[in-house]
Amino acid sequence: xxxxxxxxxxxxxxxxxxxxxxxxxxxxxxxxxxxxxxxxxxxxxxxxxxxxxxxxxxxxxxxxxxxxxxxxxxxxxxxxxxxxxxxxxxxxxxxxxxxxxxxxxxxxxxxxxxxxxxxxxxxxxxxxxxxxxxxxxxxxxxxxxxxxxxxxxxxxxxxxxxxxxxxxxxxxxxxxxxxxxxxxxxxxxxxxxxxxxxxxxxxxxxxxxxxxxxxxxxxxxxxxxx
Length: 226
Prior knowledge:
22% of the residues lie in helices and 38% in strands. The longest helix is centred in the N-terminal third of the chain and has 14 residues, at 19-32. Strands 1, 2, 3, 4, 5, 8, 9, 10 and 11 form a nine-stranded mixed sheet that branches. Strands 6-7 form a two-stranded antiparallel ribbon. It folds into two domains: 2-108, Alpha-Beta Plaits, CATH 3.30.70.580; 111-225, Alpha-Beta Plaits. It has helices at residues 19-32, 76-86, 106-109, 127-136, 188-192, 220-225; strands spanning 2-10, 49-51, 60-70, 91-99, 112-120, 141-146, 149-154, 159-167, 171-179, 203-213, 216-218.
């Protein structure tokens, strides 16, 4: 049994497909490329594959991850090339590494997500002041509905960095580092609600998913080598 950790992109042409449709698209590509993937047992066998934190519909990304279990060794460069030939425009497998069987799962170790937010600004908005005011707050409340129940959460402890990358009189581009995973999760649009972006102008791109350890960030591929 062989396990591979893969990094891939989800770009603009397919940004409106759901996570489930993304998984199905990759499954079809694996079959078309004749990759020797292991399957689960039972009445409805499924490919043994596991993703990192799911990407919201409409969000693009240059750093998504997937763990895949194979029944035999494959040459990594050939594996990536074979898959990219049959994947639709918008999904590209960029890197891969072999991982041990006892390597922690992506969902158990990924705890940071970095986003780029781009959007139009409200008239005469002071973006710098708005960002500083947000960071100075101790409580930023958001409401989330799950299973017909509404919860109010304070997401401020899960926002680690907000940097203004570029700004003009009408538009701005921010970089955002937030918590993700089972111990807390921040949606970028929730942060944008506290900033002077015009409604329906926001574009969100996930730069990557990371593991925070000892005040530094590592990619899931780097951790796989440790």
